[in-house]
């Protein structure tokens, strides 16, 4: 799912992309990574300096949330300065699915939950990922905006 970048008028933008093309992110910093199964295929999950990245090449599926340009991928650009409640349906490689993106108050982040991957940045900012059978959730906290960005991606094979 996605992190933030400064945009016009003091807002923050989230760049979110799901598809079958692997994005190119210049100067990518990976803080934590882990390989887990997703629909029985190996998938790489990463907390990156600008949010999160998921790659399941056997499924032809990639998901990236970033404050930076995604290079060869055309992302949805969402403003974090407003309440978000969006659902995207998509097809990618051998899978189809949907992604829900919502913003909630910072206090909604379940800090005591067990995650498959988590990185705590400075000043209470956190990116956390929980992976289930055919689905995964991400949480991104923005203390400076008093919000938690939540995503849930559900996949199924075609």
Q: In words, what does this structure look like?
A:
The chain starts with a strand and ends with a strand. A hairpin with a 5-residue loop joins strand 10 (117-120) and strand 11 (126-132). It has strands at 5-6, 12-19, 30-38, 41-48, 51-56, 61-66, 76-79, 85-92, 95-105, 117-120, 126-132, 135-142, 147-157. 37% of the residues are buried. By secondary structure, it is mainly beta. Strands 1, 2, 3, 4, 5, 6 and 7 form a 7-stranded antiparallel sheet that branches. It has a 6-stranded antiparallel sheet with strand order 8-9-13-12-11-10, with no helix packed on it.
List the helices and strands and how they pair.
Layout (H helix, E strand, L loop, with lengths): L4 E2 L5 E8 L10 E9 L2 E8 L2 E6 L4 E6 L9 E4 L5 E8 L2 E11 L11 E4 L5 E7 L2 E8 L4 E11 L1
Antiparallel strand pairs: 1-2, 2-6, 2-7, 3-4, 4-5, 5-6, 8-9, 9-13, 10-11, 11-12, 12-13
What's the short version?
This protein is an all-beta fold.
Percent of residues in helices: under 10%
Order of helices and strands: EEEEEEEEEEEEE
Report the C-alpha radius of gyration, rounded. Answer: 14 Å
Distance from N terminus to C terminus (CA atoms, Å) equals: 23 Å
Percent of residues in beta strands: over 45%
Tags for this model:
158 residues; mainly beta; seven-stranded antiparallel sheet; six-stranded antiparallel sheet; 13 strands; 58% strand; globular
């Amino acid at each position: 799912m996605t992190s933030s970048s400064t945009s016009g008028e003091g807002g923050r933008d989230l760049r979110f992309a799901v598809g079958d093309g692997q994005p190119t992110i210049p100067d990518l910093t990976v803080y934590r990574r882990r390989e887990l199964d997703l629909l029985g295929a190996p998938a790489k999950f990463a907390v990156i300096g600008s949010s999160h990245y998921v790659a399941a090449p056997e499924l032809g599926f990639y998901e990236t949330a970033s404050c930076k340009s995604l290079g060869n991928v055309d992302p949805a650009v969402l403003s974090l300065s407003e309440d978000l409640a969006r659902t995207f349906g998509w097809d990618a490689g051998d899978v189809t699915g949907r992604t829900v993106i919502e913003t909630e108050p910072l206090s909604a982040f379940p800090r005591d939950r067990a995650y498959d991957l988590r990185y705590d940045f400075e000043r209470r900012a956190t990116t956390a990922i929980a992976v289930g059978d055919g689905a995964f959730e991400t949480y991104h906290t923005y203390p400076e905006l008093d919000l938690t960005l939540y995503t849930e991606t559900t996949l199924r094979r075609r």
